[in-house]
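Subject: design request, 58 residues
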């Protein structure tokens, strides 16, 4: 079973309980002409300098 299937909702719910807002699910990135994706991106409403990108690795 992929790591995302096991942990995605658990991590997302934990971040939301701690005041994070999920901004992208999935988060699509384009860097230097290369397209990539992460499982989700989030920002903290209480600390405007905080952002996180989550990617599961098997």
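Subject: RE: design request

Done. Sequence follows.
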């Amino acid at each position: 079973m992929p790591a995302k299937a096991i942990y995605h909702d658990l991590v997302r719910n934990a971040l939301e309980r701690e005041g994070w807002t999920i901004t992208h699910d999935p988060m699509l990135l384009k860097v230097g002409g290369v397209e990539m994706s992460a499982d989700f991106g989030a920002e903290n409403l209480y600390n405007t300098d905080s952002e996180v990108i989550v990617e599961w690795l098997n």
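The chain has a mean pLDDT of 80.
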